[in-house]
# Entry
Amino acid sequence: MKFKHLNIEKQVSKVPKKVLWCKRCAMSNQRPRIIFNKEGICSGCKYNDYKNHSIDWKKREEELLKLLEKHRSKNGKWDVVVPSSGGKDSGYVAHQLKYKYGMNPITVTWAPLKYTDIGKENLQNKIDSGFDNFLYTPNGIFHRKLARLCFEELGDAFHVFVLGQVNFPFYMAMKLNISLVFYGENGELEYAGDAKHKDKPFKPAEEWVKQHFKGVTFDELIKIGKKHKKYFNDINFENLDLSYYKIPKISDLKKSKIKGKYFFSYYKKWTPQENYFYCTSNTGFKPNPERTEGTYSKYSSLDDKMDGFHYYLRYIKFGLGRCTEEVSHEIRDKHLSRDEGIKLIKKYEGEFPKKYFNEFLEYLGISEMHFWSVVNSWRPKHLWKKKNSKWTLRYPIS
# Structure
């Protein structure tokens, strides 16, 4: 019996049915919220031009100094929250804030679905480089049920991590009476989304549902789970278990003087490869000994065994996986030519993350047959065709 999802994922239905590829990088118009100009150049490349030629980075750093001085603790207490897995980007932000700008950051970690050994090691190495850290691990039974619900109805089991990674740090900030929360890059700008807020240093909570949560609130997810899924009921969880998945109340954020997600990339020119080199020297960050499945790099998204399925399902839904995202950024950074990037895409894009496949099935409590039934339910007809029992993209990059 074929699986049929409920069409609550708001992004899939909004992508164009005619596939176009950026003439400068390797991104297509299937990326949610991307904008192409008349010359066929995507918003990621246009923002990169803006970043390289129109921003006065010295002035931006002066803005940063004023912001930090406003929030700087006068008694040595923590004065800024940095969400951090121990990876290269959050490590770079935390280390810069503490050792270059004299702040007292507290790093907070929303636990991965299933830690990798290198993920645990990098988190500990970051802590050992001079940071206090809070690690929060949610109710395991509920988390797995919610992950299965998100896999089936949003095409992304990893969505449960995104919910906590975005929301949990703000609950911690309010508990600790800290009004500044600093993330790394603004993904909408750096990875070819909507660039209309390119001159704002933060993203208010009002925009999170659309840009981070696929247009679906957490309360809507819970209602859908209870109504449509036999495995999803409230026997195994309390209301307290739900708290940190939700966007904090706007009134509570305002009361705590929290404006939203501040981005370090607004103040400092963002280059992922340079963040990697910085953290190998300053926070003990280590890359994987082997490349990450689905791409060519060894230093991105290392901490969660389930992460590969987030990118694989994104490839199914939009024809864009991990490799395309990394290639496009490196083309803009002039670390790769477009031809070199396309060769990497043809070699690695869409590679199935087989290393942790059995653990993924076990984590969600599903069979391999159900897995593929769900995956295939997310293949848009305008992107995929099936011939001789093999699925291929209709319009691959060339």
The radius of gyration is 21 Å. The chain has 18 helices and eight strands.
